[in-house]
Design brief:
- The structure is a single chain.
- The N and C termini lie close together (11 Å).
- This protein is an all-alpha fold.
- The chain has seven helices and no strands.
- It holds the Pfam family PhoU_div.
- Belongs to the UPF0111 family.
- InterPro entries: PhoU-like_sf (IPR038078), Put_Phosphate_transp_reg (IPR018445), UPF0111_domain (IPR052912).
Length: 208
């Protein structure tokens, strides 16, 4: 039954893939921003543009969900998956805007490392989402989800070390507050990627 429904509403998987592509694009823009602050405002603007594109994909997915009588996945799973994916780009946009508003002029190695882990997580999300249309991929999908979990754990470790160093070594309270906010936003991006992985794992268990 599940396999027969796939061709009928494959549009959902196309939309998931479009959104996953945008998640990767947004995270790479964030890493580029963290690598070179010389083009800060243009990078922030680029992230905002990607987020708006992702909002449109999310809207189209939910609109299609309301119009579709028989869906290839559980309706609640479709809604949770696309909204959690959208959270990823919302947080990346928040991080970019916060860097701009706080007038941060240089990046720490820890912030750059968190941005790198955001890219790695979103790339794995893209891989997992790209295989979701075919439950014959279930074993590979679960393996990728485990990799996302490991990357999120890596981000936790980086975050804890960054916070320890920040509170130990940063004498300026304003700088401390600014960097703490950036660390938290970037680490939360990896949390949302893990949420997406958990949703995908649940879909696989239900449908494989």
């Amino acid at each position: 039954m599940f396999g027969r429904l796939m061709p009928t509403e494959g549009k959902f998987f196309d939309l998931f893939n479009q959104h996953a592509d945008l998640c990767v694009k947004g995270s790479k823009e964030m890493l580029a921003l963290m690598t070179n602050f010389d083009d800060l405002e243009n990078r922030v603007h680029a992230i905002e543009g990607v987020e708006k594109q992702a909002d449109a994909v999310t809207y189209n997915t939910i609109e299609l969900l309301h119009k579709t009588f028989i869906t290839p996945l559980d309706r609640d799973d479709i809604h949770k998956l696309i909204t959690r994916m959208d959270d990823i780009l919302d947080l990346l946009e928040d991080a970019g805007q916060t860097i701009s508003l706080y007038d941060i002029r240089e990046v720490t190695p820890e912030a750059k490392r968190l941005a790198e882990l955001c890219v790695a997580c979103t790339e794995k999300v893209k891989v997992a989402v790209g295989m979701l249309h075919n439950m014959n991929n279930s074993r590979d999908i679960l393996t990728v989800c485990e990799e996302i979990d490991r990357l999120e754990s890596d981000a936790d470790h980086v975050m804890r070390a960054a916070m320890s160093k920040l509170f130990r070594d940063e004498p300026d309270v304003r700088t401390l507050i600014k960097l703490k906010a950036i660390y938290e936003l970037l680490e939360t991006v990896t949390d949302r990627c893990e949420d997406v992985a958990n949703i995908i794992e649940g879909i696989v268990v239900e449908n494989a």
